[in-house]
Amino acid sequence: MKYALPIVVIVLALLGANGIYVVGQGHAAALSQFGGVQATAIGPGLHFKLPFLQSVAVYDTRTIVSQAAPAECKTLDGRTMRIGFHAYWQVADSAAYVKATAGDELKATQQMLPLIRTALCKQVARQDLAAVLAATGGTLAMPARDAVSAEVRQGLGVVVHGIGIGRVVPPEAALAAVYKRMDAEAKAQANVVRAGGAAAAAAVRAKGSAEDDELLAAANQAAGLVRGEGDAKAAKIYATAAARDPQFFQYWSALYTWRQAFSAGGAVVVLDKGSPLMQAVDAGAATTGGAAPKR
């Protein structure tokens, strides 16, 4: 009798521990008994069940992302390539989900991902390698999702919201060709950019040269006008001076010519006594009362 109370306490503790379960936020539970689902979509909170008679499967009600490693697929032209993907899915029928997977997410992905991979490979098999490499993710993913939606909905109780194409690895030989094509396209694009830059630079240089020519022409024109005005004024002054004293002007002109001739220094000029220059010098010296230079 002394052991009866402790045994009763232990039994009650076990019954209580086995009869209470908790469902967290973002999750739901399904209650099963004797292999059949008794209740589904049990929300978050503290709940009770029949100890040892009923079992609970707690599952995530949010959208789940499952990643699949790249696997081989053959294209229409017989090339083998590797394609990876990820699937966005969510529990839609909790009874079917628990029955097929016991609420285990890993079991669900192990059954669902091979179906999606098969559907993707079927899409790849309908196109050649170049078309697959050029295709967008939706070109392959949407038909594959549509192909498996009904099967996974009925068999697993889940709905596939979308499929994302991950890494696409073409064959080594094709990969080299792809790199070569990408390099050629990059070089062509670079040539176009360089040609555009060269054309723009040439246009800027041409515009600058034209502006320089215009500025130089305007400056030359202005300088010509100034020189013309100066020459006109000088001619007027020379004419006035010549009119006032022709002989002195002739003498001054001769000296100016003489000075210009010897301004560089080191020049030797041999003149005849009867040359116009010497006659002008003599005439100017005689007029001013000076002596003519010796020669």
Explain briefly what this protein structure is.
The chain is 58% helix and 22% strand. It has 295 residues and is an alpha+beta fold.
Structure commentary:
This protein is α+β, with helices and mostly antiparallel strands and 295 residues long. It has four domains: 4-59, no CATH class; 63-170, 2-Layer Sandwich (Tetrahydropterin Synthase, Chain A), CATH 3.30.479.30; 172-244; 245-295, no CATH class. It is built from eight helices and eight strands, in the order H-E-E-E-E-E-E-E-H-H-H-H-E-H-H-H. The strands form three sheets. Strands 3-2-5 form a three-stranded antiparallel beta sheet, covered by helices on one side. A three-stranded antiparallel beta sheet has the order 6-7-8. Strands 1-4 form a two-stranded antiparallel ribbon. A hairpin with a 2-residue loop joins strand 2 (27-33) and strand 3. The termini are far apart.
Jot down its keywords.
single chain, 295 residues, alpha+beta, Tetrahydropterin Synthase, Chain A, 4 domains, three-stranded antiparallel sheet, 8 helices, 8 strands, 58% helix, rod-shaped, disordered C terminus
Give the class from helix and strand content and strand pairing.
alpha+beta
What is the alpha-carbon Rg in Å? Answer: 54 Å
Please tell me the overall pLDDT: 80
- Beta-strand content estimate: 15-25%
Top-tier CATH class of the largest domain: Alpha Beta
Order of helices and strands: HEEEEEEEHHHHEHHH
Distance between the termini: 166 Å
| Main sheet summary | 3 strands, antiparallel
Low-confidence stretches: 290-295
> How do the strands line up in the largest sheet?
3-2-5
* Amount of helix: 55-70%
